[in-house]
């Protein structure tokens, strides 16, 4: 009696229909980076200083260059150890006063020659930003005492990811992958447009939170959907390439941000294409595995026939009807308790939650730590995204030959060791330090891609989407606290965040070895299947079979 994987062997495991479906879902993956890391460009912080009334006029009269103007009128300008003073304070003087000296204008306000004696005040009249474009920072003045609002903007996105991952996962398992995907696309598109037209910071954060609630859940639902369409031997490839499509989106996002340096237009440019994904209503069928798990066999057969027709294959007559086994007649509905009810699934859940947390902290943390050093934001972002493609290639060449666990453990160890090396290598060995940082980014990218591949393989069909999204919610917890790890610890020692990343990554490298190897195994259909995955072999009676009505049976 054949399983769905057996049927796919006859009608095509990854033929024309699945390839077309996979391509259009990869477009969804490529559209996710502007939400996940959009703050890099939407919240770009340019060099800034207080706006001092009268300075521009005095500079024009004296014929100062920009550097001379800054040296004369900005406190502590050029002193990197006190850069906060030059950005958030200004001299408490009247620059419109007549008779000011062009060589030492501050001498008119103090009897001392030292500028440090001149009283200071907060930037009551706003700021001047050295940027030809705009960001939410420059428009809403999210600097100095309001700099925490930029952290809140990104934290709200990750908080939305956290809540949405759990709720969207339940909806996808309860009501279907396709319906869930379409709803998340619609809400994400509308809220993205509202972000671009937000009249205030508060409304912008609210609309961004709504985007976070649906966008990540939709992205992961797309991954689950394509994984359930293809045959066993192609799950690895589609999982890695789906992640690589995200990396392509990173490159495209960097290019679009370079061309459109104004945040509202940039937000519109990356949001409007999402409305085209609503065409998935006509392009994508429901997951046949989900339909079978829900005992909707007639609808499952329609999807299977559609796949066969799309692949130019004819479904064998012996596979024309599906009959559920009597002992599996009760339809399974997912429950959060199912994730911790049984010992093996409970172990899988806790380890996967930690490794999702680790992947997020190291992935986002390395990007943020790179930004502390400054440089060309577009080139830095572009080059760091390029590193992800060798990671995908290494996985394609290894996970089917070696398996999932050992490359996963090695990738964690490489990421952790590279973070530690980057922290200890002195600044004057720039290229060695940069190479170590790139190795760390490559290692954690491999971890991200492997967990997206393995997580669905460890849960039964009716629980799969919920399991993936609940575990991946820890990724969002990591995203919420990562800015505090990077920026607060860097104030103590610039490289301290990297040491923390190293410890977290090395621990994860050991934990993933406690998970069962999933290479070459069929997707578990029941709780019992998932509980027995740690065993070397799997007996035939532990697999849910799709009963078929053959002509001989019908004759009898």
TrEMBL record:
UniProt catalytic activity: 1-methylnicotinamide(out) = 1-methylnicotinamide(in); histamine(out) = histamine(in); prostaglandin F2alpha(out) = prostaglandin F2alpha(in); spermidine(in) = spermidine(out)
Annotated TM spans: 21-45, 152-172, 179-199, 205-226, 238-259, 265-284, 351-375, 381-399, 406-425, 431-454, 466-490, 496-515
Compartments where found: Basal cell membrane; Basolateral cell membrane
Pfam families, sorted: Sugar_tr
KW NADP (keyword) present: no
The entry's keywords: Cell membrane, Glycoprotein, Ion transport, Membrane, Transmembrane, Transmembrane helix, Transport
MF annotations from Gene Ontology: xenobiotic transmembrane transporter activity
GO BP, one annotated term: monoatomic ion transport
GO terms for cellular component: basolateral plasma membrane
Membrane-related topology note: Multi-pass membrane protein
InterPro entries named in the record: MFS_dom (IPR020846), MFS_sugar_transport-like (IPR005828), MFS_trans_sf (IPR036259), Orgcat_transp/SVOP (IPR004749), Sugar_transporter_CS (IPR005829)
Keyword RNA-binding applies: no
Entry similarity comment: Belongs to the major facilitator (TC 2.A.1) superfamily. Organic cation transporter (TC 2.A.1.19) family.
Protein's recorded name: Solute carrier family 22 member 2
Annotated organism of origin: Alligator sinensis
Gene name in the database record: LOC102382626
């Amino acid at each position: 009696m054949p399983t769905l994987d057996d049927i796919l062997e006859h009608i095509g495991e990854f033929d024309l229909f699945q390839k077309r479906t996979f391509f259009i879902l990869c477009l969804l993956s490529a559209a996710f980076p502007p939400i996940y890391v959009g703050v890099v460009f939407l919240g770009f912080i340019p060099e800034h200083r207080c706006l001092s009334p009268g300075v521009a006029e005095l500079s024009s009269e004296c014929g100062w260059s920009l550097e001379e103007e800054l040296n004369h009128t900005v406190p502590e300008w050029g002193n990197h150890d006190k850069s906060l003073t030059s950005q958030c304070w200004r001299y408490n003087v009247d620059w419109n006063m007549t008779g000011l000296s062009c060589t030492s204008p501050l001498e008119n306000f103090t009897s001392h020659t030292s500028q440090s004696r001149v009283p200071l005040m907060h930037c009551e009249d706003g700021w001047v930003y050295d940027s030809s474009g705009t960001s939410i920072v420059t428009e809403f003045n999210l600097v100095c005492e309001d700099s925490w609002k930029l952290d809140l903007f990104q934290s709200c996105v990750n908080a939305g990811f956290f809540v949405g991952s759990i709720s969207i996962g339940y909806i996808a398992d309860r009501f279907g992958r396709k319906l869930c995907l379409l709803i998340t696309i619609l809400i994400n598109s509308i809220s993205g447009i509202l972000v671009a037209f937000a009249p205030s910071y508060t409304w912008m954060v609210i609309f961004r939170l709504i985007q976070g609630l649906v966008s990540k859940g939709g992205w992961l639902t797309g991954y689950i959907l394509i994984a359930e369409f293809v045959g066993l031997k192609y799950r690895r490839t589609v999982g890695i390439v789906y992640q690589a499509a995200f990396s392509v989106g990173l490159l495209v996002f960097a290019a679009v941000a370079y061309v459109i340096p104004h945040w509202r237009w940039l937000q519109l440019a990356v949001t409007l294409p999402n409305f085209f994904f609503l065409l998935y209503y006509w392009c994508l069928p429901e997951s046949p595995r989900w339909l079978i798990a829900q005992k909707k066999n007639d609808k499952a057969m329609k999807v299977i026939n559609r796949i066969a027709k799309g692949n130019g294959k004819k479904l064998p007559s012996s596979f024309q009807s599906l009959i559920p086994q009597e002992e599996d007649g009760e339809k399974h509905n997912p429950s959060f308790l199912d994730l911790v009810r049984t010992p093996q699934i409970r172990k899988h859940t806790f380890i996967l939650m930690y490794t999702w947390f680790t992947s997020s902290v190291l992935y986002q943390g390395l990007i943020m730590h790179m930004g502390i050093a400054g440089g060309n934001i577009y080139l830095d972002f572009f080059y760091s995204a390029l590193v992800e493609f060798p990671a995908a290639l290494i996985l394609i060449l290894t996970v089917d030959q070696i398996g999932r666990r050992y490359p996963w453990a090695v990738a964690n160890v490489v990421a952790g060791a590279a973070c530690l090396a980057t922290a200890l290598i002195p600044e004057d060995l720039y290229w060695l330090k940069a190479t170590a940082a790139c190795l760390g980014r490559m290692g954690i990218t491999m971890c991200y891609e492997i967990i997206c591949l393995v997580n669905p393989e460890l849960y039964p069909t009716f629980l799969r989407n919920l399991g993936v999204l609940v575990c991946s919610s820890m990724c969002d917890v990591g995203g919420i606290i990562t800015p505090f790890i990077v920026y607060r610890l860097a104030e103590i020692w610039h490289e301290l965040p990297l040491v923390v990343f190293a410890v977290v990554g090395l621990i994860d490298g050991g934990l993933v070895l406690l998970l069962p190897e999933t290479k070459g195994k069929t997707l578990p259909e029941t709780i019992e299947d998932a509980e027995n995955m740690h065993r070397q072999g799997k007996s035939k009676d532990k697999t849910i079979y799709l009963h078929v009505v053959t002509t001989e049976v019908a004759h009898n």
